[in-house]
Amino acid sequence: MQSQFGNHNLILFTNRDTMKNICSKYCKTALDSSSEIVLILTYYETVKDWLNYLKNDGICVEKYKNDGSLVVIESRKGFFGLLNDFVGIMIMIRMLLGRANKLAKKGLTIISDMGVFFPNRTEDLIKHETEISTSIQDLKVKIYCVYNKLDFESLREEQRQLLESNHNEVLSVQEGEK
Question: Going by fewer Cβ within 10 Å, which terminus of the chain is more open, N or C?
Fold first, then answer.
């Protein structure tokens, strides 16, 4: 998972454990080098499960949570307001970029499980995915939109093509990849 700031990437996965392994390795590199803040928006796993997974992978979770370098929250809280209305993540991005600046970090990486939009929020999904690229292109942000392949394939062909065209890269993670 290599990318430049300003990039918005799509990752398809079939096996959650393989995806978590790849994301965890990226997080470890980003956090241990003290170069980035990492935001994980989780849907298919609980926040507690993600934190345990990262800890078991050798990441000093408490240290990074306490210094503000690691933020793990439910996707629903990142994308939707208290009344379940779509609000997007730009407010959170700007807040975390301010924190990154204060902590002398290079920027922010977001790993976002997009399962929160399925099956009933696809209009919000399309809105988010088509607007976020232009919103972050000049910011010190990398976004990895992580899709369960079954969710992604449930979209209509034109929706899939639109999503793919609004990402810098489309990656497919196969079971067992590291």
Answer: C
